[in-house]
Each structure stands twice: as structure tokens, then as C-alpha cells.
Amino acid sequence: MARKTGSHSEITGPRIRAEASRLFARHGFAAVSMRQIAAAVGVQAGALYLYTPDKEALLFDLLKTHMEELLVAWAEEPRGDGALGTLESFVRFHIRYNLMRAEAVFLSYMELRNLNAANFAVIEALRGRYEAELETILKAGQAEGSLVLPDTKLATMAIIAMLTGVTTWYREGGRLGRETVETIYWDMVRKAVAA
To answer: What does the alpha-carbon distance between residue 70 and residue 65 come to, in Å, rounded to a whole number?
Structure first.
């Protein structure tokens, strides 16, 4: 099938990803067809297969890209002093980064079940790398005596769940601004783990 006038890979590819993300988040992966994605982008359905082999590959690409970009962004984030300062940096970073990508976060948690075993394992490995970043901070805090917690793995999972949960309720222009939310959450995390 011929491309529509003005359809270029550097424009169409990102638009396909953006529309697929929006539609998957709004209606659920299973309810969205390739035809719906094509219509939202403004191309013929067959044109999508120039960019992705199938719908699951498109979802996998969205989830993988989200996790890879999260890891790169955290690697570039300035750290605070000591484990406590680094933990504060992590808390604030996680909230700030994910609030700007709430749709991607939603997909990462709600649509992961739609991946085949091999793709699921790739995403789980990327998640594991990110979780290990936090657990390393917690272990460093235990070693230096600034943090006290009975199980670093459990604390890691609890903290990430708490921080990620902000994306489900936070609305821009609401009662609390992002910076205030970051500060309150940092205070809660600090009190939960500090010596």
C-alpha cells in the first residue's frame, strides 16, 4: 500500500508510537486494533507493518523504551551526599520523571501481561536493574548507619510502589504542586528508613 502524502518514517514512526501509547492507555491493549492506531495516525492499516511486525511488538517497544530511558535519566541525575542524600535524589527523581510520563507508567504496569514470555523477561530485567539502583542506595545507607530497615529488597519494592502510585492520583493544577508532593513523599520515605 502506498504511503499518504507527507508520510515520512521520522515523523510517522514516532506518531504511531504516540498514538498507540495513548490508545492502549485509554482503552487497553486488547481492545485496540491496528486499524484504530492507523486511523489515529492518518495512515492505512497496512502502513503500520512498515514500522512494527505486530501489535505486541509495538507494545514491547513502548515498554522497553520507557524503561531504557528511565535508566539513562537516572544515571544522569545528580546525586546527594551520602546514602540519605542519594535516596532523596532518587525519590524526587522517580516522582518527577514518572509524573511527566504517567501514560507510559500505566502501560508498564497494566499491560505487561500482554507480552510473550521472552519480551516479558526483557522488561522484568530492565525493571530489576532500576530496582537494584534503589536497593544499592539502601544497602549503602545500612553500611554507613544512616538507614535502618529489616529487608532492603522489601523496602525497595515498597518505596517504588509508593512513589509510582503518585501517577494514579496526581493532577496538574490540583491542591498540591509537584515540588510539594516530592517534598512530602521524601519526608515519608525518610521517616520510614532513616536511623
So the answer is: 8
Burial 74-85 (b: 16+ CB within 10 A, else e): beeeeeeeebbe
125-160: pLDDT as tens digits: 999 999 999 999 999 999 999 999 999 999 999 999
Identify which of 127, 118, 109, 24 has the alpha carbon closest to the alpha carbon of residue 68.
Answer: 127
Q: Beta-carbon neighbour count of residue 37 at 10 Å?
A: 24
Instruction: Give alpha helix (H) positions in the chain.
Output: 9-27, 34-41, 55-76, 82-99, 102-110, 117-144, 152-164, 166-169, 178-193
pLDDT on residue 50 = 86
Burial of 63 (0-12, 13-18, 19+ CB in 10 A): buried
C-alpha 187/C-alpha 81 separation (Å) is 17
Q: In Å, how far are 6, 29, 38, 71, 161 from 76, measured between CA atoms?
A: 36, 32, 35, 9, 22
Q: What is the pLDDT of residues 71-104, one digit of tens each?
A: 999 999 999 999 999 999 999 999 999 999 999 9
Tell me the C-alpha distance between 57 and 64, whole Å.
10
Residue type, 46: G
Which of 22, 183, 195, 176 is CA-nearest to residue 91? Answer: 183
